[in-house]
Amino acid sequence: MSAPAVVWDSALLAYDLGGEHPFNPVRLDLAIRLATALGVLDDVPLLVPEPATEAELYRAHTAEYLEAVKQAPMAGWDVGHGLGTDDNPVFTDMHEAASLVVGSTLLGARHIAEGRARRAVNIAGGLHHAMRDHASGFCVYNDCTVAISWLLDHGFDRIAYLDTDVHHGDGVQAAFYGDPRVLTVSLHQHPFTLWPGTGYSAEVGAEGAEGTAVNIPLPPRTKDAGWLRAFHAVVPSLLAAFRPQVLVTQCGVDSHEEDPLADLSLTVDGHRAIYRTLRTLADEHADGRWLAVGGGGYQLIRVVPRSWTHLIATVLDRDVAPQTPLPASWTGLVRGAAPHAELPLGMSDGGDTGFQPWGDGLDDAVDVAVRDTRRAVFPLHGLDPDDPRD
Question: What family does the entry list (predicted)?
């Protein structure tokens, strides 16, 4: 089997919204440095991306919007299209930096489509909120949408997109809401309680594509056990019914209990369990084809580097044991830059990832979300929403 691919180049750090903005590229740098210090990337050739072309960006965005992005750094703040806001400030070389993020995810997709890799990971990707004609939620161009569109034109006609970010994967859902070839599944904090306010269970896809949009809105403070119970109650059955040829996953880590922008309560151990589950599902349902990208995550030092090191390691089949201590070289680097930062001791939060399967007598707010989603979507795939075996 061809070796998994890791896409990375320090040029991706140029996607920098500046100042005190939470979407700080230092999280990417620290993740790659931690994976390197732990030996996860030993003898792994890193794929160096090139910027996506305009033709490739048109798969997800309008020509008018691309022109606005190009002109924004010179035009100042009044450019419209969601640019120049607190969430999406204008920055120098914004078009070039955002195009490179898209190109990095496309590079992973190409390696999978051409058979050069069964799996690929790009932690710089995952800009899932960007819409066709405007920026949204820290996202200028939608690399997920572009990559899925490209895959649809290069040998694939059934693609499953799984979004584990704490925020609803609204941009990708919007792009494929009427396309029965793409199954979009998003597990996120309930839209009553968190931006962007979409992702209800009743959002199931447009006419002709009913059942291919799947949303599992989870209550605030959901822990590892509840999150994993909800995931396993919905996702494996739908993948078995949909039979995807490739799995694309957005692996945001802002679902962590320490994330400052949201209110779910997962641990690094929960993230590790999610990635291992995604790998298994790709092997079982997509002939091993798995394209993984990053996403949100705003605890820049304690959480993102560890969680995405686990992601890279899982893609490479170099799983890092939870009890592994943090390397002194990495902690020394962090302390040199942030001497007052409180660092974890190792690659675990001590989280318990055991969970009680859905249908085993539990009846809490998580199970309400599961029931609502199953009843909205399962019949559209010929599945029984009330039968735990489906």
Answer: Belongs to the histone deacetylase family.
pLDDT band at 62 (very low <50, low <70, confident <90, very high): very high
Please tell me the pTM assigned to this model.
Answer: 0.98
Residue 388 lies in a domain: no
> Do the Cβ atoms of 349 and 268 come closer than 8 Å?
yes
**Residue 289: closest CA among 138, 110, 131:** 110
Select from 165, 140, 261 the least CA-distant residue to 216: 165
Q: Which residue's structure tokens are 């309008």? A: 62
In a domain, 389, yes or no: no
Residue 119: phi and psi, rounded to 5, are -130, 150
Residues recognised as catalytic: 129
Work out the burial of residue 357: count CB atoms within 10 Å of its CB; fewer than 13 is exposed, 13-18 middle, 19 or more buried. Answer: exposed
CATH number for 99: 3.40.800.20
32 domain residue, yes or no: yes
In a domain? residue 148? yes
CA 167/CA 349 separation, integer angstroms:
22
Reduced to 3 states, what is the DSSP secondary structure of residue 186? Answer: strand
Tell me the two tokens of residue 183: 């199954």
d(CA 68, CA 80): 8
Total domains, the chain: 1
297-306 confidence digits (pLDDT tens): 999 999 999 9
pLDDT number for residue 2: 83
Q: Which of 32, 26, 30 is nearest to 14 (CA)?
A: 26
Residue 49: cis peptide before it, omega within 30 degrees of 0: no
